[in-house]
Amino acid sequence: MCRSITFPEGCRINTLILKIHMSPEYWDQPEVFNPKWFSPEGKEGRNPQAYIPFGSGPKSCIGMRFALMEAKACLVSILRKYRFERSPDTQVS
Ligand code: HEM
Questions:
Q1: According to its UniProt record, where is this protein located (predicted)?
Q2: Which end of the chain is more exposed for a tag (fewer CB within 10 A), N or C?
């Protein structure tokens, strides 16, 4: 749902990003992590503002690419040292 709101000049606006990320308006079963949501097909038709961990627009995070690269580098160093197995308790949907 889109609404047009006029804000007075100088007014401070806070966005509850978690609320957007957990909104059933954008996500089926928002409490479940589904990696397929982030595939090109999964993103199709979803409002691009529905997932904004690094903010959005001209003031968005300038470290986003660096942070994502760091996360991948961390994952690689963990995977080089350890093997992961699914626990018998893991529920696969
Ligand atoms: C997982 C890691 C990170 C997350 C989730 C994150 C998230 C965010 C968010 C939500 C904002 C505010 C965007 C907005 O106001 O719309 C922001 C701003 C910013 N971030 Fe990050 N950030 C991360 C890592 C980094 C790193 C590694 C750097 C620097 C190396 C960085 C530098 C900045 C700066 C300078 C701003 C302010 C940009 C501005 O006001 O123009 N961030 N970040």
A1: Endoplasmic reticulum membrane
A2: N
Please identify which residue in the block is written with the tokens 């409490």.
31
Q: Is the CB of 66 under 6 A from ligand 1?
A: yes
Model confidence at 1, pLDDT cuts 50, 70, 90, reads low
Distance 60 CA to ligand 1 centre (A): 7
Question: The whole model's pTM is what?
Answer: 0.84
Measured distance CA(54)–CA(13) in Å, rounded? 16
| Residue extents of the structural domains in the chain | 11-53, 57-84
Gap from CA of 52 to ligand 1 centroid (Å): 11
